[in-house]
């Protein structure tokens, strides 16, 4: 296998000086070779039981090879049946890697990692005669993914299509989804390696099956990872993963707990969205961690003007403003970042393989779904500004306009010291895509770092950090009225109800941990977004 070229360049001389001692300690402790050998003791006794069943990702460039033939065979059979449209129903680690792989290769994959009725309805409106649905869930119980499966099953049946022949399942051995798929006679079941956590699963069946069925060259992806693997396993100061881990660890020790990611000509499309989950869910716990901030480019606010609380990382070429630059092909970068984040976890003193705070939001949403009256009684708006209903934190003044509400809210991030603003849009990320402009507008006007996430997908990504990481965030939720809802077959709720329950449930959990939450509900989505953007533009840094 040819050697794959990757490089980690620490452009900031002061950061490199601080990183060198950490790099030397990682080399002296043989962290790289122990990691590739599956040594579960690297993160301490408390982490050992979890680490012992989570380290198979280090050899996936070898062990995933048999999947290539299976994927190619299934894709050929589907195409011979006239089925060439691939829809992926999956959340977090089940969707983020396939999306970056297919976007980078320019092949079509419809990704459903949402509970927005409009976005799901758009996917249903595609040509079902040509459609196969990949149902992807490690646990086999993910509520969003199960809802998608039920909705498509009914749609296929209503169209006179044998539903079982149109479902391909990716899950862990023995999961409820695996048992259901076999009982229903689904077309194909791929069982993933159970000793790999979701955010480290890019090179397992979870990443490769949907991407490969869509037409991506997954063999080349594994070749790229294999080409960099020897360098990542070397106990050497030239090991790019150790260099990245040391730089991130040194930056965090110096107060830069945020990592701002921007593409700088890598040729990879959407890498930050995948790295976001890996970094946040692996490190954001016990009141510490690295908060990933995905910037639109090297000139975007938050990257170009990163302060002392943030490290600007260019994915691709070294550019002005970058403290670190990481280059390499997609397959190489996937494996490099996984090694680097695992090593950074050792430096931060946390277990990079658990996610202790993720379940809280799920429990809160389930409680609201089980008691619809509780969901309906979540309170009256603090104020109404045209098409925007304002649900402000308790004790917030009712006077003033929407800009005044936002100004007081974002000031709380500054008051927290090195705080950040998290924008969480429980909307349609295609139709309501303009909501994403709020990240740049808020970052430009507040001087704080600002993240943006589509709900509920971010709950499977950065949601762990929000509850378990540095407690200095404020959270702006956007919800909206639903024009046409979609019922979930054999369930007592619709997608619109589920979406709202997820937003309110997560907001309750955040508020219980002392995080300020402001929810803006758009009674008219287009007009409401325009109103919110105007209010943000009235802010001054």
Say what the CATH topology of the largest domain is: Rossmann fold
Tell how many strands the DSSP assignment holds: 16
Low-confidence stretches: none
Question: Whole-number radius of gyration?
Answer: 23 Å
- Percentage beta strand: 15-25%
The overall pLDDT, averaged over residues, is 96
Name of the CATH homologous superfamily of the largest domain: Glucose-6-phosphate isomerase like protein, domain 1
Query: What is the CATH first-level class name of the largest domain?
Result: Alpha Beta
Helix content: 40-55%
Q: Tally the structural domains.
A: 3
Number of helices: 21
Using the alpha-carbon principal axes, give the shape. Answer: globular
Instruction: Characterize the main sheet.
Output: 6 strands, mixed
State the secondary-structure class: alpha/beta
Distance between the termini: 52 Å
CATH architecture of the largest domain: 3-Layer(aba) Sandwich
Keywords: Gluconeogenesis, Glycolysis, Isomerase
Catalytic activity: alpha-D-glucose 6-phosphate = beta-D-fructose 6-phosphate
InterPro entries: G6P_Isomerase (IPR001672), SIS_dom_sf (IPR046348)
Pathway: Carbohydrate degradation; glycolysis; D-glyceraldehyde 3-phosphate and glycerone phosphate from D-glucose: step 2/4
Give a brief outline of the structure.
The protein is an alpha/beta fold and 541 residues long. The protein is 44% helix and 15% strand. The chain is built from 21 helices and 16 strands.
Describe the protein's architecture and organization.
This protein is of the alpha/beta class and 541 residues long. The protein has three domains: 9-26 and 241-327; 58-221, Rossmann fold (3-Layer(aba) Sandwich), CATH 3.40.50.10490; 357-538, Glucose-6-phosphate isomerase like protein, domain 1 (Rossmann fold, 3-Layer(aba) Sandwich). The chain is built from 21 helices and 16 strands. The protein has a six-stranded mixed sheet, sandwiched between helices. Strand 5, helix 9 (176-184) and strand 6 form a beta-alpha-beta unit. Helix 1 crosses helix 12 (240-253), helix 12 crosses helix 14 and helix 15 (358-370) crosses helix 20 (495-512). It starts with 6 loop residues before the first strand and ends with a helix. The mean pLDDT is 96.
């Amino acid at each position: 296998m040819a050697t794959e070229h990757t490089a980690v360049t620490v452009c900031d001389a002061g950061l490199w000086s601080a990183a060198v001692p950490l790099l030397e300690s990682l080399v002296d402790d043989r962290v790289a070779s122990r990691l590739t050998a599956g040594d579960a003791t690297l993160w301490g006794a408390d982490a050992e039981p979890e680490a012992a069943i989570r380290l198979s990702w280090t050899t996936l460039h070898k062990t995933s090879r048999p999947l290539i033939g299976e994927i190619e065979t299934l894709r050929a059979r589907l195409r011979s049946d006239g089925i060439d449209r691939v829809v992926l129903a999956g959340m977090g680690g089940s969707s983020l890697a396939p999306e970056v792989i297919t976007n980078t290769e320019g092949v079509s994959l419809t990704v459903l990692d949402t509970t927005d009725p409009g976005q799901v309805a758009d996917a249903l409106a595609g040509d079902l005669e040509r459609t196969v649905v990949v149902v992807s869930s490690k646990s086999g119980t993910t509520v969003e993914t199960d809802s998608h499966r039920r909705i498509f099953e009914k749609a296929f049946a209503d169209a006179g299509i044998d539903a079982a022949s149109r479902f391909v399942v990716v899950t862990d051995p023995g999961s409820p989804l695996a048992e259901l798929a076999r009982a229903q006679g689904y077309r194909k079941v791929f069982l993933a390696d159970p000793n790999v956590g979701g955010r480290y699963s890019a090179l397992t069946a979870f990443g490769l099956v949907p991407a490969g069925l869509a037409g991506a060259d997954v063999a080349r992806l594994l070749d790229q990872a294999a080409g960099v693997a020897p360098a990542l396993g070397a106990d050497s100061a030239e090991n790019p993963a150790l260099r990245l881990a040391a730089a991130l660890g040194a930056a965090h020790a110096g107060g830069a707990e945020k990592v701002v990611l921007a593409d700088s000509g890598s040729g990879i499309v959407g890498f930050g969205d995948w790295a976001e989950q890996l970094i946040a869910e692996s490190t954001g716990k016990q009141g510490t961690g690295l908060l990933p901030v995905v910037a639109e480019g090297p000139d975007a606010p938050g990257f170009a003007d990163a302060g002392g609380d943030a490290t600007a990382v260019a994915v691709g070429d070294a550019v002005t403003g970058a403290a670190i630059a990481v280059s390499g092909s997609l397959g190489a970068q996937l494996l490099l970042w996984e090694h680097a984040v695992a090593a950074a976890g050792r430096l931060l003193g946390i277990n990079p393989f658990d996610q202790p705070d993720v379940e809280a939001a799920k429990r809160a949403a389930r409680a609201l779904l089980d008691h619809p009256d509780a969901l309906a009684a979540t309170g009256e708006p603090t104020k109404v500004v045209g098409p925007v209903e304002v649900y402000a934190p308790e004790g917030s003044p009712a006077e003033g306009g929407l800009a005044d509400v936002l100004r007081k809210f974002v000031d709380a991030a500054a008051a927290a010291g090195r705080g950040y603003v998290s924008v969480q849009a429980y909307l349609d990320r295609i139709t309501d895509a303009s909501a994403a402009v709020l990240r740049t507008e808020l970052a430009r006007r507040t001087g704080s770092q600002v993240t943006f996430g589509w709900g509920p997908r971010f709950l499977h990504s950065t949601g762990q950090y929000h509850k378990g990481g540095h407690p200095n965030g404020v959270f702006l939720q956007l919800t909206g009225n639903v024009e046409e809802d979609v019922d979930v077959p054999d369930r007592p709720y619709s997608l619109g109800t589920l979406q709202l329950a997820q937003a309110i449930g997560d907001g309750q959990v955040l508020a219980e941990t002392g995080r300020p939450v402001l929810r803006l509900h758009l009674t008219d989505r287009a007009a409401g977004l325009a109103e919110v953007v105007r209010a943000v533009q009235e802010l001054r840094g």
